Amino acid sequence: MTDSPRPLGADLARVAVFAALIVVLGTVTVPVPGGVPITGQTLGVMLAGLVLGARRAPLAVLVVLALAAAGLPVLAGGRGGLGVFLGPTAGYMLGWIAGSVVIGLIAHHGRFTWWRAGIGTVLGGILVIYLFGIPVQSLVTGVPFGPTVLSSLVFLPGDLLKAVLAVLLAVALRRAYPRAFPTRARTVAHAG
């Protein structure tokens, strides 16, 4: 059984909804010494990767980053403007793009399952984002790389909790509303 392609308007609406979700989750912040707060925005990025897939999820992230670059207060703590792309969080924000792609690639490679979603979320939503974020944070703050890695471990428990929450929400959404997911995933699920 194959599905007809989804209209462009439906895809754009989904991208816009997840961009808005990422922005709203930015209102959930916990300040941490070092200039990089714990936020709910990575949960939004994880959910975008799981639900929208590798092609559409980075578009939602790019919408948020474009709005931030235009000066709108869409990032954690109501931040926006070009200056945020020169600060300690710049690498993490770039990591959101790559991370959402990795999440989508892993979660939607074959049949969508909770374990595939979990692996994708941990690798893309945590590891990839850290690989972009930690070196830039070290460079911008002037703190050597090793101590920056160690200080970043404070984020790991919260990020693991966000990964679990993202997988639980995505699996529940997949069961309740499979049309929200990419067509290929729906086709594979119908075949299995």
From TrEMBL:
Localized where? Cell membrane
Highest taxon of the source?
Bacteria
Q: Which spans are transmembrane here?
A: 12-30, 59-78, 90-107, 119-140, 160-177
Q: Keywords in UniProt for this one?
A: Cell membrane, Membrane, Transmembrane, Transmembrane helix, Transport
Any single Pfam family the record assigns to this protein: BioY
Name of the protein in question:
Biotin transporter
Membrane topology, as annotated, equals: Multi-pass membrane protein
Q: Does the UniProt entry include the keyword Lipid biosynthesis?
A: no
Q: So what family is this one in?
A: Belongs to the BioY family.
InterPro entries, from UniProt? BioY
